[in-house]
Amino acid sequence: MCPNKKTIFILKIFLFMIISIGLLIFLLLWALPVQKEDGNLTDRSKSADDYLQNYADHMKSYMNFSVAPCDNFYEYACGNYPRAKTDHFSVNRRNNRIDLTFTLNDITVQLLGRTYLAETLNVSRELVVAQRFYNACIGAEIVPFPAADPAYLALIRSSGGFPAVDGAAWNAFEFSWLNMSSHLTNYGANGLIYEKLVGRYPFEPYFSLPRLGFDHIVDAINIASNDSRAFQLNDKRMRGYLQAYNLSEERITEVISGVFAFWRDTLKVTKNFNEHCVPFSSEKGLDAYPPLRNYYEIAWNGVNLIEHKDCYAFFAELDKVCNQHPEAVANYLAMQLLYVFDAKLTEAKYQQEHCASLVRESMTFLLDKLYMLEHFSEEKLLEVSEIVLEVRKIFRKTLEEAEWLDEESRETALLEESTLKAIVGSLQNKALTDRLTREIASVKIVEDSFATTNINLARHSIKTNRFSSLHFEELANDTRPQAVYLGMQILNAYFINDHSFYLMAGSLEPPIYHRAWPQSLTFGSLGYIAGHLIMHGFDTTCSLYDKLTKKMQRVFDLRTSCFIEQYSNYTIPEIGLNMDGVKTKDRNIADNEGLRQAFAAYRSHMKQQMWVHPEQQKVSGQMPGLDLNPDQLFFLGFAQLWCSDFQEEHYYSFLNNGFTIDKYRVLGALSNSDDFVQAYNCPVGSRMRPETKSCRLW
């Protein structure tokens, strides 16, 4: 029996209602935010309120509420971080900001499955290579590290030999410390040639003093005793490698003793030079060091031979020491080569993250293409750019009102600010990044030897890092360093060469930025970082300094000396040494002035928002569950960027690199901030509001 027209009409109406309701439910579900493991929101997740509550709980977990904020704000904001931080493995210090690398590792694993994105970008072949390496790494036995793998030993022997293992077969007369160190640079190992690349075209190599040691940089003081942590950590690392070759304990102890003796003699030489190899004495350095030609042939195939002479005298002195300890030098360099391939993991549960990190760090430009397409939206670019602009406007106002500047210097400073270039996300150079991505297809994955595959990847990684240097003649002379074309990284940097600064896309994640955050937290973290980078364009090494009048240079120096004295008085009790206020002065100035500009920009921005949208009283700037007003939250956001967990070896590393210890970045900047002491109502004489006059540059 056929249905009549009325029945058919009712059925059509019913079907239309079912489809409409289904479509509406689908759209509602799609619009809800999802909570990702790293706490970020995507377009499909829980509500923003739930996210903010979860993130507020996360911030609270780092805090030590038993400490008064005016007594020690770092301890108040970060005192519980070492216990509350997420479980990840790192031989380096842990730090809330650097923990972003673990977020990028998680994203890397996700991107390895984005075959449709790879097809869209025409990088499917390269993605397959990345997938194959990742799978090979996951399936390999790398905990404990197989130091005696034939592939690693073969590489060592081809580079200079391993006398501890080869015994009488190793020929000291054929050994060259310079040649072996040159080979090590091809795999990213830090031997006795500590190679860097100049940050401008044609990106030629130059040198710094070598950093001796493995897990702990050594100096004459920290290896004076066999009981020191520096001695024990390095002894343990070398002992592990040598035990893998089934050497007797007596032989192992002999080899390690030889390496320490070599280090001690080398340190007698390095103490006479600064980190750039310039001698502290007034003696003139060497004009040539002929053996270095071998380095350019081994590491650079004779390309980019612009020689930097600063280290010639140091190499000549080092050569004398190496000639006294040839066997120890070869053993040390052999173990440095092993160290670069060693995952250094304490437990197998960290292996997946290590493999993701290897892929992310070695196949950077492939993953960057996928990341920028999926994770860096136009909305994020516009919002971050607006914050940067707000901070810049405040700094211009600061320059206009700075009482100590004469008019000529003020005009010069304002011109410098107007020419400062801000790059959010990354710079674009499609031709170069496409070439670097195509190189990934040449990485050979050896199915039955992960060690060989690991070596191949390390070689590829160094070739990638040196690509612009090796191919400079094919590039335009205005080509920038490769790093600025790579958005998927947490780099935030100022480049003096072209007066520009960069906020890379990979850094625009918590704890630096999130679109759901209140403006107080956003300006305290991202705004401060933008301010810090801007200030590097106006510190003691910037081009502005030389353009100031002589009178203004003297005032500039006087104001700078306040920061030098302040930070030099910070003692690091864990190692009994003081901070170096001279080496760290520019970073400290950038911290202090950047934070000041960011807070003023926050206040200005909120006034504008209330003027444009007076009905939006919801702009409270608070986080649920955190009993802090907006101004207080601003400073908590700044401080928690630097929540950290240091071991002794990390302090030495920081001092050698001229960085301020994280804790003192917080304490130093806030003790100079009138805005901070007002926000937390700190009385005069409290530790965070000393009675002495605070430091200020601009």
TrEMBL record:
An annotated GO BP: protein processing
SUPFAM superfamilies tied to this protein: Metalloproteases ('zincins'), catalytic domain
Localization in the cell: Cell membrane
Keyword Zinc: yes
Gene3D superfamilies xref list: Collagenase (Catalytic Domain), Neutral endopeptidase , domain2
Keywords: Hydrolase, Membrane, Metal-binding, Metalloprotease, Protease, Transmembrane, Transmembrane helix, Zinc
TM spans (from-to): 9-32
A GO molecular-function annotation: metal ion binding
Homology family: Belongs to the peptidase M13 family.
Full protein name: Neprilysin-4-like
Gene: LOC108083625
